[in-house]
Amino acid sequence: MSLAAGLSSEWLIVSEPTPHVLQVSLSRSPVNAFSTEQVGYSLGCISLTSSLRFWTAYGALFDRITRERRDVRALVVSSALPKLFSAGIDIKGGIVEETTGDAARSSLNTYNKLKEFQSAIGAPQRCPFPVIVAVHGLVVGLGIDLICACDVRYAADNSQFTIKEVDVGLAADIGTLAFLPKITGNHSLMHELAYTSRIFSATEALQLGLVSQVVPGGQKDVIGAALKLASTIATKSPIAVSGTKRILTHSRDHSVPQNLDYVAAWNAAALRTDDIPEGLRAAQARKQATFQPLSKPKL
């Protein structure tokens, strides 16, 4: 059975292009805008309708893959739309519902909605496998929040980005302003882009440190490059890759001494893995190593 079985929904197309690699394609025409519109999905031969928002369904997908312990070793997020990645939030969709009455209670309600939104868009951070995002065309507002939460970011050379929130009267609150100071190296350029919302190119995104590679071409080219990277990662020890992701994330959010202590505790257990002798045997025999799943699937 394919690792992608039963995972696709109306706006999220999930496939397994190569062994142990999933591709999640955003597919909400016309511009992959995130809203509160209902999403349909199927359960066997039964068609259902869920009140899941597009962004909630996105986060729930990643959490489900992890919860079901599917043997996924790398995942690529992309857009199924040929001209762009995402136009961000669908303002007409009313992401945060209007409230009336007591101001404190209204504010608390808004806080809770924003935390749900942050959790959904940040779901790739919780996965035990690397998440690579391949973007092309426009990447607007929430689209940048989304890609910032991924581990590796590739951009087609036709990509254009904008941190759009200041133009609608707010500070970006779903991830961009939290992640950018941690994942980019050019803080002067980062501040300029966040304050002005001006459109910037794939070349500037590379200069900023937002993306690690600019791929000549468009949608198919950048997705192909991302899938090639994912396939390479999928051949590595799941214990080693999962541990590396966890330790890198910890390092981003903690001091060097704290991270050294964390990795010592982690590897005190992880060094006992059978993946090490398997990797050594494969290297000596000049063959591809065969690694067991990270954990027993629940399927």
Q: Layout of helices and strands, plus pairs?
A:
Elements: E1 12-18, E2 21-26, E3 33-34, E4 39-43, E5 46-50, H1 54-67, E6 74-79, E7 88-89, H2 103-121, E8 131-135, E9 138-140, H3 142-148, E10 152-156, E11 160-162, H4 176-183, H5 187-196, E12 200-201, H6 202-208, E13 213-215, H7 219-234, H8 238-253, H9 256-270, H10 275-285
Parallel strand pairs: 2-6, 3-7, 6-8, 8-10, 9-11, 10-13
Antiparallel strand pairs: 1-2, 4-5, 11-12
Helix pairs in contact: 1-2, 3-4, 8-9
Pfam families: ECH_1
Organism: Mycena indigotica
Family: Belongs to the enoyl-CoA hydratase/isomerase family.
Q: Classify the secondary structure makeup into a structural class.
A: alpha/beta
In the predicted model, the low-confidence regions spanning at least 5 consecutive residues are: 39-51
CATH class of the largest domain: Alpha Beta
Major beta sheet summary: 6 strands, mixed
In percent, how much strand structure appears in the residues? 15-25%
CATH homologous superfamily name of the largest domain?
2-enoyl-CoA Hydratase, Chain A, domain 1
Question: What count of helical segments does DSSP give?
Answer: 10
Adjacency order of strands in the biggest sheet: 1-2-6-8-10-13
Distance between the termini: 10 Å
